[in-house]
Structure formats: C-alpha cells, structure tokens
Write a structure and sequence with these properties.
The chain is of the alpha+beta class and 588 residues long. The chain is built from 19 helices and 21 strands. A hairpin with a 5-residue loop joins strand 12 and strand 13. The chain is globular, with a radius of gyration of 24 Å. It starts with 6 loop residues before the first helix and ends in a 6-residue tail after the last helix.
C-alpha cells in the first residue's frame, strides 16, 4: 500500500484503487499504536463508534464526497458526538451529545473522526506538557516539547497518522505545535470557523485551527468549514478579500525587536526564510513591531485573563482542586480583574490596534518566526510560566488584533529540530497567506511531518547497540525481514553511554547541542508491517526519535531519555558499541 499522507492520497486510494474504508481506517488506527508513547490521544475511536461511519460511506460513491473516508483527529476541547470531551481534565469530562459545528461540517463531507487528541489542560499553555494524560513528546527529539496547547492534534499529523486535524488557537496553540512538528498550522480569522461546541478558553478570541501536511490541504478543510453558523454569536460571514499577485510587501520586525532567546540556529533559519520570501517576489520592509509586542502582553497581563475564568467559572469555583497547579493558577487569577480593568484594557487595545493597522496598511503581510526558540521538557518543568510566555512572543497578539495567520515549516537546526515561520495579515486573508505559504514551504524544500511508518512500505532505522549485525539482538531485526542498508555514523551531536545498571547493559544515545561526538550506527530497512512489533519490544528508557547522520540525512532511531544517563558510563570517545564491548567484560 502506498504511503498516505495528504487528503489527496486518501481520495486516490478510494477513487482509483477502490480501497475499503474499513481497511484504510483500521490501518490508520494501527499506525497510531506505534506512537502511543508520545501521548497523542486521550480517546481513540473503537469499532462500535466507527461502524455508523463505515455503513454510511459504504453506500456512497467515493467521488460524491470531498473528504470521503479521510480520517482526522479532534482536539479534546472540541465536541464529537458520542465521544467524551475532557478538555484535559477527567473531572470536567462529559459525553458530547452533538458534534461541534466544524466537526459536523467535516463529517458531512465524508471525513471520519478517529480520536480525541491530547492538549494542555483547558487549552492553557503553548508547551504541550500541561496534561494529566501525559506530556506531548516531540517526534524529532523526545527531550523537547511538542508545543501546545493543541499538542496531540499536531503530533497526529506530524506522525502521518491523519492528514489533517482540528485544534484551537487563542494565543498560538494552532501555530507553535505546527512549528515544532514540521507541519502547517492555519489560524483563521476570528469567527471564520464556528466555535460552537468548543470548550471556551477566551470565548471572544478563540479560533478553531487546522493542522495539515501542506497548505493546500489546510485550505481545503478551511473552505469546507468556513460557513456562517447562525447559532454562534461570534460567527462571521466571509467577505471578498483581494489576493496577492506578482510582487508583494512583507514586514519584518526591526532587528532589535526580534527575539530568539539565545537560539542562534533559529535566527539563521529566519533570515534564510526572509531571503526565500524575497526570491518569490516579496519586498522586505522593516516595521516597528512594538504595537504587536505591547498587544501580546495584554493577553495574560490584561483583563482578558478573566475570560479564561469566565469560560469554566462553575467548575473553577467548585472543583479547582482537580486542575493541575499551573492551570489552576492561570484560571483562578482571572477572578480578580474588575470592570474598570476591563475598560482600561479595551481602551489600550483600541489604541494599539490603531497603531498596528497603520503599519499593516504599508505592507501586504508580516513575517515572523512562529516561535523564537524551542525548549526541553525539563526546562519547561523548571520555569513553566516564563518559558511559556517566551513561546508566545510572536503569537499572543494575533487574535486581539483580529489577524489571520498561516504557520509553515522553514527548516531544521543542526540538531535536527524543526523551525517554522508565520505569515500574518488582516482578517480574511487566509487564501492569500495560504498561497504565499505554500510557495515558501516548497522553496524551503522541507517535507512536512515524519514518515508514516505504518503506511510506508518500509522504515529505515538506525541501531547503535546489540541490534547491530553479529550482536545478540540482531535476530529481532532479521526475523522481521529487515535488511542491512549501510554502516555509517551519526553527526557529531551525540553523547553515548553504557547503561550498565541494566542487565544486560544497553546503549544510551543522547542528543546534545555541544560536546558531542560521532557514534557508529547501522541502517536497517524493516518492513513497515513488522515495525510495530519490533518497536513495542524496545524497553524504556529508549524512545523513538530522529537521528542526524554525518551526511546530514535524518533517519529514525532510538534516543535515550536524559534522566537515564545520570551516573552512567560515558563511552562517546570510543565511537561505538563494538569498541565498548571489546574493552568491557559485559556479557550480552
């Protein structure tokens, strides 16, 4: 079966190949199992839930529905009838009786919801670590955050489990996890997509966001969902908006207003994106970014924090003990602002919008990093509020200023971590931004997401320990039909440890930003249908991630959680596991 990554891939599978919806969706759910350790899901669809969807589509011509049999994920603060909505808090949970409006539109078009995705509790965070259902784990390096709050929705697309998903975006939740997952994140205009059936974060600012492998798929989903909902008081009708043609002007913050929080690789990649946009006919214009930065501060420092309290007021008053500490602190702080604070905030926002609109009239769009840096999960645990604020530097102002935005992949750091940029413009500029974003994505040359290991025919896997040829565990690969492709080494970005507290000892490969070395690895090609059983047999503290080879290529491999190497014997200088074995009395 060919790899299914985009909506078009699925439609061709049905319309050209005559595939069964049941078979395709079952394979999709199987692919989800490979990534269970990354905490993507809160609830996955079971056979009884899916049966009515199968029966309906089996009676239809695949060409009659624009999303016939296409699976998608739904953030678990958006209702899907018959599924539990938790908003990341079990004590808040309820079984939805109706679909959220946008979910209903997609199902009517033939799409199938296969699960409710993990999130930062009550959508309060940009990190993906604030969930009692487990931290979202970055698929390129498990030590780093996935981004949030729509962590699971983005991870499901990055992994190739689904071609698109729904998230929400109040402060950046539909863009930051897209950047950290090497996928597209579309944040539509406020009210373009109905928020009826969405657990509110800040109801007047909330947007339903779309994650996809490419801009074209994001546009397709947007067009199907952007319908005026007469029962949603915040829903708006879409006016005609001009598109960009030929040359266009894009604003870039002054250098002293750009912030990368010490991440030089992200800074270099941003200026590369500027050059790429210029190559597409863009004219760079330096802008004063201060009105946007000042607006961003209003979101959590101003009276809008009261909206987070208002949205779940009754639960916050009676069951605040059920919330995570950091979520409770954010939500309950919203009980304090007064009406005077609110009006002062409205006045300040009106002034900032006047200033920002003046700047936006001089350009067609603005270009910023989606996030100025990325953090490790342990760093976020140490400073959950300050670092979360840093991640919102380029995102928090968008909905307050009524902008539309499209986040697209824009490269990788030398350590193999994704970087993304965001194009933003006034309300209802979605299609114009998508058109430019698609070109920028293509010229950058970085395919979205990861390889879908369950849908592709085979997976190339790097091994660095007892699974190498001639060593005791190699039979676990050969018995599954794996073949040796190449003997090579990693880039000089890893520290290598012998975890001798385990019996037998096992290798621990840890990605580092400095002080690393090259480590010998073997690349084995394993049939995708056998990868899941192999992966499930790999013990903790190893986790599936992406390894950078000495030629710059990125492949799948097993990285070690950093906690496990504390006190372990470092063998980086030996260059590989075989050298360690030759100098060790370890029995394997």
């Amino acid at each position: 079966m060919s790899q299914l990554k985009t909506i078009g891939d699925y439609l061709r599978r049905y319309r050209t190949d005559g595939a069964s919806v049941r078979d395709v969706i079952q394979n999709c759910l199987k692919s989800a199992e490979v990534y269970d350790a990354h905490n993507i899901w809160i609830t996955k669809a079971d056979a009884s839930f899916l049966e009515p969807y199968f029966r309906r589509l089996e009676g239809c011509d695949p060409s009659s529905l624009p999303l016939y049999g296409v699976p998608f994920a739904v953030k678990d603060n958006i209702d899907v009838a018959g599924m539990t909505t938790t908003a990341g808090c079990a004590e808040f949970a309820y079984v939805a009786e109706e679909h959220a409006f946008v979910v209903g539109q997609l199902i009517e078009a033939g799409a199938i919801p296969i699960g409710k995705a993990n999130l930062d509790q009550f959508a309060s965070g940009l990190v993906g670590t604030r969930s009692p259902y487990g931290e979202g784990i970055n698929l390129f390096n498990p030590e780093y955050v996935s981004g949030g709050s729509s962590s699971g929705s983005a991870l499901a697309v990055t992994a190739g489990i689904v071609p698109f998903s729904l998230g929400t975006d109040t402060a950046g939740s539909g863009r930051v996890p897209a950047a950290f997952g090497n996928i597209v994140g579309l944040k539509p205009t406020r009210g373009a997509l109905s928020i009826r059936g969405v657990v509110p974060a800040c109801k007047s600012l909330d947007c339903v966001a779309i994650f996809a492998q490419n801009c074209e798929d994001a546009a397709r989903v947007y067009d199907l969902c952007s319908i005026r909902d007469e029962e949603d008081s915040y829903s708006r009708s879409k006016p005609f908006v001009k598109s960009f043609s030929g040359t266009f002007r894009f604003g870039v913050p002054r250098p002293d207003q750009l912030e990368f929080f010490g991440n030089g690789a992200y800074e270099s990649l941003f200026w590369e994106s500027v050059r790429n946009l210029e190559s597409l006919g863009g004219i760079q214009c330096e802008i004063d970014f201060s009105p946007f930065m000042d607006t961003a501060r209003l979101l959590y420092s101003g009276p809008w924090i009261a909206e987070r309290y208002c949205g779940i007021k009754e639960f916050a008053q009676t069951r605040s003990d059920a919330m995570l500490d950091v979520t409770r602190g954010i939500v309950l702080s919203g009980a304090n602002p007064s009406a005077v604070d609110a009006f002062e905030g409205f006045y300040r926002l009106a002034e900032l919008k006047r200033l920002s609109d003046r700047i936006l009239r001089e350009v067609d769009m603005i270009l910023t990093p989606t996030a100025g840096t990325i953090y490790r999960r342990d760093e976020i645990r140490e400073e959950p509020l300050a670092l979360n604020t840093n991640l919102g530097y380029y995102t928090n102002f968008m909905n307050l200023l009524d902008l539309s935005a499209c986040a697209v992949p824009a490269g990788f750091t030398p350590e193999g971590l994704p970087f993304g940029v965001t194009l933003a413009a006034p309300a209802w500029s979605e299609h114009a931004l998508i058109a430019i974003g698609a070109k920028l994505h293509r010229v950058a040359g970085f395919e979205s997401g990861l390889i879908d290991v369950a849908a592709s025919k085979s997976v190339v896997l790097a091994v660095c320990g007892a699974h190498m040829s001639g060593l005791p565990l190699n039979h676990e690969l050969t018995a599954r039909g794996a073949k040796l492709v190449e003997k090579t080494s990693t880039a000089a970005l890893y520290r290598f440890f012998a975890l001798e507290s385990f019996s037998p000892p096992r290798p621990g490969l840890v990605h580092v930003s400095e002080g690393g070395g090259m480590v010998q690895v073997e690349l084995w090609e394993i049939p995708s249908e056998n990868f899941g059983s192999f992966f499930n047999g790999v013990p903790s503290p190893l986790a599936l991630g992406s390894l950078i080879l000495n030629n710059g290529k990125i492949v799948k491999g097993f990285l070690c959680e950093s906690y496990a190497v504390e006190g372990a014997k470092e063998i980086t200088k030996l260059g590989g596991w075989r050298s360690y074995l030759s100098q060790s009395s370890a029995v394997l």
